[in-house]
């Protein structure tokens, strides 16, 4: 997925490595609640201790409907019931995958005891638990964890765990030691790891890394578009001469990332955003331009995450009618990323679309490809709380019900 999809981010590449597991677990299977047309309950639903234990035990079931129903039962249980049971499962359950899913579900209840479970999980030999813990500390930065996270960087080599540790550190970027370490990491290690560093520095607008990333952007290679996009996200117009030069010299497949970066700097968006949409449409209609299509989708995702709703709509306009997975998959991955990284914009966009159901289905396909499970749980919790808090008959309540049904959570 390199050469374009990296505009969305290296964490999406976990999908490639885990596709066999995903198929075994039934990712992409029919979504049960939507098919059944069930009405979402209007408040948390009490369950017996036996029912809650049974649901937790089924979190790792190979059958999609079974494990999804189990997650649904737990999410809708009152926090007073669910949190102690999930904490116990994280610590004691014999199935490592169940422990992982329990830790993810725990984050949806916003309970202060979650922090302790996350800290303990940092030392777990289970890669999945460490991934969730690092992601938690990204979204809940704790200066007191700085030294521990820096120390973890020296020993954490798991390919699909290290990017989340990098992001947790990037969230603490005000610390001089973190700044020095992350700048050094821009030029160290395998390209996969370096890509994660560059993406995180861009997302956290790490002005301190501007020179290091500019150096990478000037070099022809697989990290060039990562670096270009990061320069745009950082937002310092000193990067503009470098990006302008890349427009003249970089290969065609990297031009969408460069165009998105220049727009992110607030320059010529009236030209660059339509270029991305037109490139996406061209690549969709003409075979052999998959790299260009992925890059355009990634560029539009970056613009939408920054707050440009037109970019999200362009992805829906191409992705919804697409019959070819070569087009639909990058569009789905892009809108799924937008939903996780700018939930407010995605909700607003969905509210206004006449083809809302089809748009939500595309988001759901993106969620199936993304492995940012903690981010997805945060999205689910937001939607669920909004539904419970909305009055009957309000448009927001109807949208939340549709999201819950079609995304099957």
Write a compact overview of the structure shown.
It contains 25 helices and no strands. It is mainly α. It is globular and about 65 Å long.
The separation of the N and C termini measures: 28 Å
What is the overall number of helices?
Answer: 25
Strand content: under 5%
Q: Give the biggest sheet.
A: none
Q: How do the helices and strands follow one another from N- to C-terminus?
A: HHHHHHHHHHHHHHHHHHHHHHHHH
How much is the average pLDDT?
90
**Helical content (DSSP H or I, runs of 4+):** 55-70%
Give the low-confidence spans: 1-7, 12-37
Shape: globular
Question: Strand tally, please?
Answer: 0
What Rg do the Cα atoms give? Answer: 21 Å
Structural class based on helices, strands and sheet pairing: mainly alpha
Task: Give a structural overview.
- This protein is mostly helical.
- 68% of the residues lie in helices and 0% in strands.
- The protein has 25 helices and no strands.
- The protein has helices spanning 14-17, 19-25, 32-36, 49-57, 64-75, 79-92, 96-106, 114-121, 127-139, 146-153, 162-170, 176-185, 191-203, 210-217, 224-234, 240-249, 255-264, 269-285, 290-305, 309-319, 325-341, 343-352, 356-369, 373-389, 395-407.
- The radius of gyration is 21 Å and the shape is globular.
């Amino acid at each position: 997925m390199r050469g374009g999809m990296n505009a969305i981010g290296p964490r999406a590449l976990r999908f490639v490595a885990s596709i066999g597991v995903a198929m075994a677990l039934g990712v992409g299977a029919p979504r049960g609640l939507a098919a059944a047309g069930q009405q979402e309950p209007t408040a948390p639903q009490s369950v017996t201790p036996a029912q809650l234990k049974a649901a937790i035990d089924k979190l790792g079931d190979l059958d999609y409907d079974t494990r999804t129903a189990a997650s649904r039962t737990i999410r809708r249980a009152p926090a007073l019931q669910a949190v102690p049971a999930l904490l116990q499962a994280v610590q004691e359950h014999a199935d490592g995958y169940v422990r992982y899913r329990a830790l993810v579900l725990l984050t949806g209840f916003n309970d202060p005891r979650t922090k302790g479970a996350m800290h303990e999980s940092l030392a777990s030999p289970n890669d999945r638990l460490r991934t969730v813990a690092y992601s938690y500390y990204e979204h809940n930065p704790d200066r007191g964890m700085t030294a521990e996270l820096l120390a973890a960087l020296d020993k954490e080599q798991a390919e699909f765990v290290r990017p989340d540790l990098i992001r947790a550190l990037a969230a603490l970027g005000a610390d001089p030691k973190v700044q020095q370490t992350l700048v050094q990491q821009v030029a160290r290690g395998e390209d996969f790891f370096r890509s994660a560093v560059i993406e995180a520095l861009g997302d956290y607008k790490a002005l301190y890394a501007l020179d290091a990333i500019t150096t990478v952007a000037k070099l022809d290679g697989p990290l060039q578009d990562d670096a270009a996009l990061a320069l745009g996200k950082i937002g310092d117009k000193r990067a503009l001469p470098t990006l302008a030069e890349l427009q003249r010299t970089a290969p065609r497949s990297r031009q969408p990332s460069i165009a998105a970066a220049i727009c992110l700097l607030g320059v010529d968006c009236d030209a660059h955003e339509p270029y991305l949409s037109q490139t996406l449409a061209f690549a969709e209609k003409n075979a052999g331009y998959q790299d260009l299509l992925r890059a355009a989708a990634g560029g539009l995702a970056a613009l939408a995450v920054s707050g440009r709703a037109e970019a999200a709509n362009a992805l829906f306009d191409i992705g919804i009618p697409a019959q070819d997975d070569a087009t639909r998959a990058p569009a789905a991955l892009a809108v799924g990323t937008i939903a996780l990284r700018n939930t407010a914009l995605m909700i607003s966009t969905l509210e206004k679309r006449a083809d809302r159901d089809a748009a939500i289905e595309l988001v759901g396909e993106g969620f199936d490809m993304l492995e940012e499970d903690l981010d997805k749980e945060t999205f689910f919790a937001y939607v669920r709380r909004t539904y419970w808090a909305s009055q009957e008959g309000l448009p927001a309540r109807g949208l939340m019900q549709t999201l819950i049904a079609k995304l099957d959570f």
